[in-house]
Write a structure and sequence with these properties.
It contains 3 helices and 2 strands. It has a two-stranded antiparallel ribbon with strand order 1-2. Strand 1 and strand 2 form a beta hairpin. The model has no long low-confidence stretch (mean pLDDT about 80). By secondary structure, the protein is mostly helical.
Length: about 100
């Protein structure tokens, strides 16, 4: 066993002599949040870029230059405002005119 330790020490010393000491430099980590403006004319928002493009839906959408612009309407909270077909058609047309597609 002493011979193995001695060989290990010699190898370690050889590496130290062969490789000059170098100062390690790590660039600062990039934030996964970036200020973006997904809708023209609307103020920018901080968006999380983590995992973007990592799934099949994002990959296909990016390949075809597609982007979902989603509007959510809570039907329960707005039942009196959107309780007829005419009212629903009207609000959908208004939303579509605003650039939303989903």
């Amino acid at each position: 066993m002493p011979a193995v330790r001695a060989i290990g020490a010699v190898v370690a010393l050889a590496f130290q002599m062969a490789l000059p000491a170098q100062e390690l430099h790590f660039p600062p980590a990039q934030s996964r949040f970036q200020l973006q403006q997904p809708l023209l004319g609307a103020p920018g928002v901080m968006m999380d870029r983590y995992g973007y493009g990592a799934n099949i839906a994002n990959t296909i959408a990016a390949k075809h230059h597609l982007q979902a612009r989603i509007m959510w309407i809570d039907a329960t909270a707005n039942i009196e405002r959107f309780n007829t077909e005419d009212k629903i058609v009207s609000v959908v047309q208004e939303i579509k005119g605003g650039g939303f597609n989903t």
